[in-house]
Amino acid sequence: MVFRSLIMKWTDRIRQVKIILVLAAVIIAVASLVVSHYLVRDLSSEEHNKMEVWAEAVRSLNMADENTDLGLVLKVIDENNTIPVVVLDSSMQAVIVRNVDIRATDMGDSLIQATTLGRKWKDEDQCVRITLSEDSTDCQYVCYDDSSMIRRLSRWPYVQLGIVMIFVVIAIFALLTSKRAEQNKVWVGLSKETAHQLGTPISSLMAWTEILKETYPDDELLPEMDKDVRRLQLIADRFSKIGSLPELMPSSLNVVVDHVIEYMDRRTSNKIVMKKVLPEHDIIIPMNASLFEWVIENLSKNAVDAIGVDGGVITLHVEEHDTKAIIDVSDTGKGIPKKDIKNVFRPGFTTKKRGWGLGLSLARRIVEEYHKGSIYVKNSEQGKGTTFRIELRK
C-alpha cells in the first residue's frame, strides 16, 4: 500500500508540474502578446504623426513660392526611408511613390500597382488628406502602410509563442523521461529484491518436499505441494527478469494459453468458467514464454476479480493474421468505467482495496518493451464485461 501511494504521488506530481508548465507558457505568451500589442500600437501612432509631418512637407512642396525653405521641406521628405507611401491625387491616381516594392515591366504597370495599393490603404483609413488650395476639391491623399519594423514586431509574439511551446514540450518530455526512469528503477529494484527474498525459503521448501517424498512416497498431497513450490520458483524467476532484456525464443502461443487455463481452473471458483478459442494449428511467435504467460495470468486474475462471487465466463481467444497474433482476454464482469479506461495502465492505479496497482503497468511493459507488441482495452461496458487485446508481431 505504501509503494502504491508513492507511485500515485509521483504520477500526480508529474501532472501538477505539467499543468504548471502549461500555465507558465500561457502566461508568458499572453504577456508577450499584450506587450507587443501596446508596443505596435504606440509605434503605429508615432508613424501616423510622422506621416502627418511628411504630408505637410508634400503640401508645402506643391505650394512652394520664393519664401518657402525648400531645403527643410526636402529634408523632411527624404528622411522617410522606411514607411511605404503612395500619394494619390484628387482623381485617385498615384502621383508619388516611396519605399514601395513594385515589380512591373513598364511604367504603366508600376503606376497601376501603386494606384491599387494607395486606394487599398485609403480604404483602410491609413491616409492623410492635404489640400493644395483654398478650393477643398483640389487635394491629395498621402496613403501609407506599416513599416517593415512594425510588421516584424507584429509577428514576433507568435515566434515567441512557438519558442515557449517548444521549450514546454522539451521540458515535459525531459521530466517524464526522468520520472519514468525513477519509476523503472523502483520497479526493477522491488522485483529483484522480491526474487532475492523468495529465493531462500523456496530452496528450503524444495528441499523439505524432497525429504517428504522419501518419507511418505505414497502421499497424494505431495505432488500438489511440489507443483505449488515450483510455481513459487517460477514467480521468483519472473520477478528476477524484470529490468533485464529477456531472451525471446520461438514458442507456442497455444501452449501458453493452455498453461494459463490449467493454472486458473485449479484456483478459481466453480462458478467461473474458463473458455479458450484457439486455431487448430500452433501459433509460433518469438517470446519469453514465462513472462508472457504471467501477462495472460494477470489479465485473467483481473477478470476473476471483475466477475466476483456471482460467477461468469472468461474467454481467451487467439487468432492469427498475416503479420501478427492477436490475443483477446474477455470477461462477463462489471466492466470498467469510461473515466478509468485511460488510467488502467498507469502505475499505482487500482480500483481494488488491496494491491499495488502495478499488474497492468508491468504487463504493458512486458508486452510493449520486451515483446514489441501492444496491449489495450478493446472495449468495456459496465455491467457486461471487458475485453483486453494483445497484439504481437510474428
Topology, pairings included?
Layout: H1 2-62, H2 70-78, E1 85-88, E2 94-98, H3 107-123, E3 127-131, E4 139-144, H4 148-215, H5 221-241, E5 249-252, H6 253-265, E6 272-277, E7 284-287, H7 289-307, E8 312-320, E9 324-331, H8 338-341, H9 359-370, E10 374-381, E11 385-393
Parallel strand pairs: 6-8
Antiparallel strand pairs: 1-2, 1-4, 3-4, 5-7, 8-9, 9-11, 10-11
Helix pairs in contact: 1-2, 1-4, 4-5, 6-7, 7-9
Keywords summarizing the entry:
57% helix; five-stranded mixed β-sheet; four-stranded antiparallel β-sheet; 394 residues
What features would you describe in this structure?
The protein has 394 residues and is α+β, with helices and mostly antiparallel strands. Helices cover 57% and strands 17% of the residues. It has nine helices and eleven strands. The mean pLDDT is 82.
Radius of gyration: 39 Å
Mean pLDDT across the residues is: 82
In whole angstroms, the N-to-C terminal distance is 38 Å
Uncertain stretches of 5 or more adjacent residues:
none
Shape: rod-shaped
Strand residues, percent: 15-25%
Structural class: alpha+beta
Query: Describe the biggest sheet?
Result: 5 strands, mixed
Helical stretch tally: 9
- SSE order in H/E notation? HHEEHEEHHEHEEHEEHHEE
Helix content: 55-70%
Give the total of beta strands. Answer: 11
Order of strands, main sheet, comes to 6-8-9-11-10
